[in-house]
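Postdoc handover notes: sequence design on the structure in folder B. Input tokens:
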């Protein structure tokens, strides 16, 4: 199965560099974000996509809808593709990273095992995305597209290539990545 995966375009929360793991918070694509996805849509318009999967977040759904204007195929929302529930909702990315770093030091655990407050660990996020991919692989799809988030794209690459997290792999907003799963 060929999986085309993209991180949503620039969204309102990205402008302030804040964490958002709650799909009920209405962060939408910006004008630039829509332009990024319009350009990405052109790169896959001739690919025979069969289905688009997206997280439950408005920014990922909007991304999927823009891509789909060239395909007119089903868009399926799946909560397993949702962004990380960080436990520090609406705080900055740098605040999250600092809290994670401190927890690693204090608890003497691997960064993927850190859970802040009522959030989930990166290990939890990885497992739910792997569960989604395992289930999707069992179907007869040949070409799918996944509209999701930064961590999601990293995890899908990790799944497809059997690799550890690559710290230097930074999924760009609106860029399509192709993986054989």
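Designed sequence:
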């Amino acid at each position: 199965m060929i999986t085309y995966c993209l991180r949503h375009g620039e969204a309102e929360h990205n402008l302030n560099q804040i964490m958002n793991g709650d799909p009920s918070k209405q962060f939408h694509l910006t004008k630039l974000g829509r332009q990024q996805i319009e350009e990405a849509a052109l790169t896959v318009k001739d690919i025979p996509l069969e289905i688009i999967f997206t997280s439950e977040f408005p920014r990922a759904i909007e991304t999927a809808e823009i891509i789909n204007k060239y395909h007119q195929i089903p868009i399926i929302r799946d909560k397993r593709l949702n962004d990380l529930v960080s436990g520090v909702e609406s705080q900055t990315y740098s605040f999250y990273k600092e809290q994670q770093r401190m927890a690693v030091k204090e608890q003497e655990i691997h960064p993927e095992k850190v859970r802040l407050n009522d959030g989930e660990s990166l290990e939890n996020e990885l497992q739910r995305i792997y569960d989604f991919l395992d289930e999707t692989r069992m179907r007869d799809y040949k070409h799918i597209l996944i509209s999701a988030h930064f961590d999601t794209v990293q995890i899908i690459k990790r799944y497809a290539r059997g690799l550890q997290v690559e710290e230097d792999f930074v999924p760009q907003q609106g860029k399509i990545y192709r993986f054989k799963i």
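Context for whoever picks this up: Strands lie at 2-7, 51-54, 75-77, 143-148, 176-180. Don't rerun without checking with the PI first.
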